[in-house]
From TrEMBL:
<keyword id="KW-0812">Transmembrane</keyword>
<feature type="transmembrane region" description="Helical">
    <location>
        <begin position="218"/>
        <end position="245"/>
    </location>
</feature>
<dbReference type="InterPro" id="IPR036640">
    <property type="entry name" value="ABC1_TM_sf"/>
</dbReference>
<dbReference type="InterPro" id="IPR027417">
    <property type="entry name" value="P-loop_NTPase"/>
</dbReference>
<dbReference type="InterPro" id="IPR003593">
    <property type="entry name" value="AAA+_ATPase"/>
</dbReference>
<keyword id="KW-0472">Membrane</keyword>
<feature type="transmembrane region" description="Helical">
    <location>
        <begin position="34"/>
        <end position="52"/>
    </location>
</feature>
<dbReference type="InterPro" id="IPR017871">
    <property type="entry name" value="ABC_transporter-like_CS"/>
</dbReference>
<dbReference type="Pfam" id="PF00005">
    <property type="entry name" value="ABC_tran"/>
</dbReference>
<dbReference type="InterPro" id="IPR039421">
    <property type="entry name" value="Type_1_exporter"/>
</dbReference>
<dbReference type="InterPro" id="IPR011527">
    <property type="entry name" value="ABC1_TM_dom"/>
</dbReference>
<feature type="transmembrane region" description="Helical">
    <location>
        <begin position="113"/>
        <end position="133"/>
    </location>
</feature>
<feature type="domain" description="ABC transmembrane type-1">
    <location>
        <begin position="1"/>
        <end position="288"/>
    </location>
</feature>
<dbReference type="Pfam" id="PF00664">
    <property type="entry name" value="ABC_membrane"/>
</dbReference>
<keyword id="KW-0547">Nucleotide-binding</keyword>
<dbReference type="InterPro" id="IPR003439">
    <property type="entry name" value="ABC_transporter-like_ATP-bd"/>
</dbReference>
<dbReference type="InterPro" id="IPR014216">
    <property type="entry name" value="ABC_transptr_CydD"/>
</dbReference>
Amino acid sequence: MLCGGLAGLATVGQLVLLAGLIDVVIRKDGGVAAVWPWLMGILLLLGVRALLSIAQELAAQRGSQRLRQRVRREVLDHLAALGPVRLTQYHTASLAHQWVEQVEALDGYAARFWVQMRLVALVPLVILVLVAWQDWLAAILLALTAPLIPLFMALVGMGAEALNREQFVAVARLSAHFVDRVRGITTLRLFGAGPRATVEVVAAADDYRRRSLRTLRLAFLSSAVLEFFSSVAIAVVAIYIGFGLLGDIPFGPAQDLTLFSGLLILLLAPEFFQPLRTLSLFYHDRASALAASDGLCELLAETPDERRHVPDRLVDDAHLLLSLQGVTLDHSGRGRVLGPIDLVIPRGDVLAISGPSGSGKSSLLQVLAGFVGAGEGRRLVAHDLAFAWMDQRPLLIHGSLADNLALTAPDADDCRMMAALERAGLGALVRALPEGLETSIGEGGRGLSGGQAQRLALARIFLSNAPLVLLDEPTASLDAVTEGILIEGFRELAAEGRTLVIATHHPALMAMGNRQLIMDAGREVTCANQ
Ligand SMILES: Nc1ncnc2c1ncn2[C@@H]1O[C@H](COP(=O)(O)OP(=O)(O)OP(=O)(O)O)[C@@H](O)[C@H]1O
């Protein structure tokens, strides 16, 4: 801001020197020697101004980058605090859009508009004082026209803000729409719905195009309004100076106008409006930043479930890993889906949970993991509670096999990774791949079969040191061979001394448990040791 203010003052100084130079040249007093000091002064100020402008731009960019980094970190922390279950109400593509695009939209505001807003009064005020010193009537003319510009800008800006808000909602919807169609491309083709989906995507994209053009139209309109008013104001001042110099204005300070003062006022008049013009250029940035911050604030206003984060500590944690005491779980609009339930999980236990579909098995695992906070009751955990999670659709990221394995063991070397893959029955496959561990896979394990993806997830659990392994229907819809490999893998984990909690319908997995918990309608029906 300081650099911007000084750069503005340097511009004013440059114009004063320019008016002086022209005055000296035209009046031809003093010869070439009299021109030099003016010229040198102009060149010096030109260099100073350039340096100050660069410094201003760099500082603004750094400030904006810091702000965006902070907001992104805050949004990520908030998403983590909301937890995986609450996040299911958002579309991944919309969240990604908010995290990338909406935070990016703050850049123009932070780096340009915010600075310009604070500079906008400084230079015009200095110019007004200078002009008033030369000719108070010209200063009044400038001062009268100046307020019209912010007034019209604000009027246009109000519309721009609403349009930008709609625009962000439309982009978020379009992103979600597109990602859904791409994810479901196989199903769409199977049902012959490809052409209809294409038409829908085209219609959504066209809607977005129309909205973008409407927003741009408004941006151009606001610039045009501003240009019009500043041109009219400059023209009025120019006419006044012209007639004043000709001696056609027989009243006021016009009679004292000289070549220097007339020139100076004429040169300063456009500069008087320049900060406002620059501000209007950035006004669109303000509108889109306000709309983006609305969306971000809405997301950040979602209060995380405090109970998820502050579990009570177990007293006897040498023997127990986890304990639920009278825990319940309610979902808005669904009422109670779990509990009250009491459950203790000793270290080294293998607990198999079964029961009909919808009986609350996954919900119980989510409460055990702390993905959702319990409504009533207490969740007590051991001090070293870390858990590994595996369900029917393992979370695989776009990247190499090694990247996916490193999610649970960032320090694991290739040897350890290969050993884990061998144990999960993927060794031969990975060794046959030309790029081995560096082979890329798509988001959600695209490029791997369902069974291979599950085995990769199992290898990840082998690599992790988590004492508790939570498994939610890990063998659902797999072939017999993969099922066998996974069940063997889980046996090995249990033999290592890890604690396993498995929600399953599979008889072999149920038989693995040293304890059986049968659930119905969110309640424990029986809990028996084998
Ligand atoms: N995020 C949620 N929001 C609202 N209701 C939910 C949510 N998750 C689960 N439910 C409801 O809670 C109940 C228990 O669901 P849960 O997924 O725990 O059952 P489940 O025993 O694991 O079923 P399945 O064997 O079919 O996987 C169901 O009625 C379900 O509709």
